[in-house]
Amino acid sequence: MKKNKVNLQEIARYVMRALLADGFKIQYYEAFGTNSLYIKLDYGVCNSIRISDHEGKGYLSYRYNIRTDISKYFVKYDRKGLVKLFYPLDKVDGLIHDINIAKASKLMQYGGKKYGKYMEEARESNKSNKGFWSKSKEIDKI
Fold first, then answer.
1. Sign of the C-alpha dihedral computed for residues 61, 77, 34 and 64 taken in this order
2. CA-to-CA distance for 19 and 10, rounded, in angstroms?
3. Cα dihedral sign for 38, 40, 44, 47?
4. Which of 97, 101, 39, 90 lies closest to 67 in space, CA to CA?
5. Sheet order of strands, 26-30 included
6. How far apart, in whole angstroms, are the C-alpha atoms of residue 65 and residue 82?
7. What is the pTM assigned to this prediction?
8. Ranges of each domain in the chain
9. pLDDT tens-digit series, residues 39-88
């Protein structure tokens, strides 16, 4: 894909299709004011993905970032010291792999039952929140 012909929705569909096949619960949101798309994984228990063609707002922090305007993978830390991973287009399969490894690690740490409980708690406690939670769509097939 040529950089100037990149369709962010196509990237999002590719990622969501792969993660749905791997058993993730997915929430999806398209920003109105910018070219940014957001995917929350397992109601946030396995973090979120931001797909965009530009740098994001400094006060927001997404663990996984796909950026069409970068050419190399890199890691940043936000103000709170949280890890932010940035993937160029040619590393999207690496992002999917890394997300699956992160979920496997959390499942080992918490156990499947507790992981599921955390998902349900996150879903219930946030479902009436404004912003992403009220505007996103749950995706179950692509």
1. negative
2. 14
3. negative
4. 90
5. 74-77, 83-87, 64-67, 48-52, 36-41, 26-30, 137-139
6. 13
7. 0.90
8. 3-139
9. 999 999 999 999 999 887 766 789 999 999 999 999 999 888 899 999 99
